Amino acid sequence: VRPFAAEQLARGDAAALRALGGLLTAYDAAFLAPYRPWIDAAVASDVAWRSRELAAGGVRALLETFRPMARWSPPVLEVTYPVERDLHLAGRGLLLVPSYFCWRKPITLFDGALLPVLVYPVEKPVQPPAAASGASLARLLGPTRAALLYEVALRGCATTSELALAVGCSLPNTCQQLAILREAGLAACRREGRCVLHHPTPLGCRLLETAGDGPAEGPLPMPRPATVSP
To answer: Which of 151, 152, 49, 31 minimizes the C-alpha distance to 96?
Structure first.
């Protein structure tokens, strides 16, 4: 965008807006799109984890997952923030929004007429997994089981529904393929409340690493938006 284009954008000039849109689209295609599956998986994992904590232990359990960047001292949520600031919810609740690009500390978005928002960083490895075709693993296990094993390792822990959505497979077929992975000793599961959580075994992780398809820095910790009313 040329230096003088800011004024044109402020005026709502159609040509300037189209030019900006084109630049943003090109930037997204070049720098974000190649990593979008990794970004989406990190955010989905965060939402799933915190949602399960909320369902199992209520608001207190959910807010405890934000340590050390936030501390729940009823009735106050103390957040690590660059400046001193008091934000009174006044019974309106708080929208928690996970962000892959939020770094280290949460930020607040506040408009007196709208629901207060806390944007927080999702937990993520230092770098995304190296690009790999997964062809060798797919030939060994079959494409669906290979994809499921990779997703289980990437997320660290996930429900059957989350995995079915991630690989684009029906729920019954996902259950069947996961059972085969368990029988082979590549994955395991445990029941947590009403959910069955799947996780990789050491053998499954070693197989992925040998094939070059494993997450670069190990599986993501289980993590996701939730509305709470402290």
So the answer is: 49
